[in-house]
Amino acid sequence: MIPESYESIGVELIKAVASDRDYLLDLRLNTMAAHLEEAGVVLSHQEHMDRVEHEYQHSYLIEVGGQRVGLLKYKKDPKTVQVIQLQISPEFQRKGYGRRVMEHVMAQSKGKTMTLSVLKKNPALGLYRRLGFIQSGEDSLEYHLEKAL
User: Fold this and answer.
1) Which of 47, 111, 55, 43 is nearest to 83 (CA)?
2) Number of separate domains in the chain
3) 64 vs 24, 60, 70, 83, 133, CA distance in Å?
4) What are the backbone dihedrals phi and psi of residue 37, each rounded to the nearest 5 degrees, phi first?
5) For residue 42, what pLDDT is reported?
6) CA geometry: angle at 48 spanning 140 and 127, to 5°?
7) Most buried in the list 11, 115, 130, 149, measured by CB within 10 Å?
8) What angle is formed at CA 135 by the lines to CA 129 and CA 140, rounded to 5 degrees?
């Protein structure tokens, strides 16, 4: 079971519902569009919405003090934790929210392997490296990272 409240880290995860889609699309456009375009990938509005919809049942709003600061989309199975998306609104980046959420999920997932992908020029790559992720592969756009927990 995925914990929904991380009181000890000052962050709360709220299961996304249908009415959150507009917020999540806006968040995606504000956090990912420029990185994708820098990588030579220009997506239509519908393609961005398709990405929001992908694995939507695993989407959690990240809130601090009742204010939305981002999204964590992840899923667990007995051996792995896959981070599908971690997006923090630009005005809340570099405040430690992404790191705290990742550290908590890692602490709750001992004995598993955590995997994720990140665009090669996305500054979040630095966060993942500081958290101890290592490169397990790559494609033309992304590094594939993992960490044994």
Assistant:
1) 55
2) 1
3) 16, 13, 10, 20, 25
4) -60, -40
5) 87
6) 55
7) 11
8) 115
DSSP the chain: ---SEEGGGTEEEEE--GGGHHHHHHHHHHHHHHHHHHTT----HHHHHHHHHTTGGGEEEEEETTEEEEEEEEEE-SSEEEEEEEEE-GGGTTSSHHHHHHHHHHHTTTTSEEEEEEETT-THHHHHHHTT-EEEEE-SSEEEEEEE-
Q: Dig out the tokens for 114 from the structure.
A: 């955590």
Q: Which residues pair with 12 in a beta bridge?
A: 5, 63
pLDDT of residue 102: 94
Tell the residue number behind the tokens 């896959």, with chain if given: 82
**CATH, residue 36:** 3.40.630.30
Whole-number Cα distances in Å, 93 to 30, 87, 98, 111, 141: 12, 9, 8, 29, 22
Structural domain that includes position 120 = 5-148
Mean pLDDT, the chain, rounded, equals 91
